[in-house]
Amino acid sequence: MGDSVFYYWLGHTKEQFRELEATLPDFQNRATALGAYLMKLRTGDSDDKISTLLNMSRTKLSKLLNKGRDVMTEHFVPQHLGLEHISRHQVAEKNLYIPNNLFGNPGSCIEDRKAIAVMDGTYIYVQKSSNYSYQKKTYSLHKYRNLVKPFLIVCCNGYIIDVLGQFAATKSDADIVKDQFRDPSQPLWQYFREGDVFILDRGFRDCISLLENLNYAVHFPLSLQPSEFQMSTQNANESRKVSLCRWVVEVVNGRFKRDFKLLRQEYFNKTSKHLMADFKVAATLLNNFHSLLVDRDDAREIVSVIQEKLFTENTLADFIEIHNLNRKRAQFESMTVQINNLNNFPQLEYNDLILISLGIYQIKQARSYYGEHVRQDDNINPPAQFLDNILLESNDD
């Protein structure tokens, strides 16, 4: 089999396959069992199709898949996944420059560095069940589908510390964390120490007080207060800091569904009993063979911009509120792309745009933003006259 065909079906090179095979104990048909299991994870194809490709009966394939899964779970997964395979000190060493400077203790030596972990729950779809109790626990009112929830704990560079679960669809991320830190005998309580940093999303808001009482540093995007219509500049900046570091866990979630098609499909009820075993094997393969995230070349400049502008007042927002411009009707003016009325707009380099947006996400979306506002007749949707009036009034002021 050619190298490209081999990678297409198994998701790994031949060298990686031989390296993986060498970590497993010897047993009959070891290479075939491992290859069949990796092919199942990679393609998500039916057993009938895979057995035909491998020229064997479906019964034999089923036995090989079970053997490959069991051996991987017993001998390979513990070496590359779980709290026992990596020390807290090693987690702290994986802190990237931006999160370590924003939320850690960058001035301390490596031995005293805080461990920073990003947590989030993901989901795997499962079939409806005639077992009513199971059906109620797996039905999500958010997704309107049946699913179970694995829970990820990830380093700043995308390395997966551990995968917990599976949990019911009705169990929130906050409730999962509460159970993991309910008493000192819990593994996570014993693993992390006071002062360590957890970066979370808003779904964890109900467990924030518990983690803070245990003297962990918890950071999550802030929400509007009951009497607020817009977040304050300071709270918005704090939320942006969290988003700047929390996206790592979303990248890892995406890799599961991208590299292992089995995990993006709906699990049959008969096979859902080994769903978490498949998910942990996939996490282990990502840890062992997938490249990790590294610091950006302009990380120091981005941190410098953040620290410089974190407490800067938003003068434009103040001006709009003082003059009640957000409450006035706008007078729209027809505008086309051929009209060049931005002669005074500064010419920015690509690196300047990155430092303004503190990353490339918004820049990648710029084409879509532009396409949203340009019509087929070359007219532009934004209220140009209204914006011009604001700029003129601010200059006069």
From TrEMBL:
Q: Which Pfam families match?
A: DDE_Tnp_4 (PF13359)
Which keywords does the record carry?
Metal-binding
CC cofactor: a divalent metal cation
Q: Where is the DDE Tnp4 domain?
A: 119-287
For this UniProt entry, the molecular function terms from Gene Ontology, in alphabetical order, are: metal ion binding
Query: What name does UniProt use for this protein?
Result: DDE Tnp4 domain-containing protein
